[in-house]
Amino acid sequence: MEEQIKKLIEEEIRPALQSHGGDIDFKGFDQASGVVTVALTGACGTCPFAQETLRVQVEQVIRRSFPSVTAVKREG
């Protein structure tokens, strides 16, 4: 499942964030807890709306495709 999550990030989430000067790096997936960990970089790393971006543009997309994912957390 980790590879599928990475593919979704690469194909759907990363292009959207890059179009706004940001980026995302997959850091890990804890299968036991269902938590995906990512790092927001570029403009997203310092944006005051980064938490909202994480919730709306990252977590919702991942959870829609992978219902077993319980949360997406930001590294750091």
From TrEMBL:
What does the record list as GO biological process? iron-sulfur cluster assembly
Q: For this protein, what is any one GO molecular function term?
A: iron ion binding
Q: Domain of life of the organism in this record?
A: Bacteria
Domain NIF system FeS cluster assembly NifU C-terminal, by residue range, is 5-72
For this protein, the record's InterPro entries field holds: FSCA_dom_sf, NIF_FeS_clus_asmbl_NifU_C
What is the similarity comment for this entry?
Belongs to the NifU family.
What this protein is called in its record is Nitrogen-fixing NifU domain protein
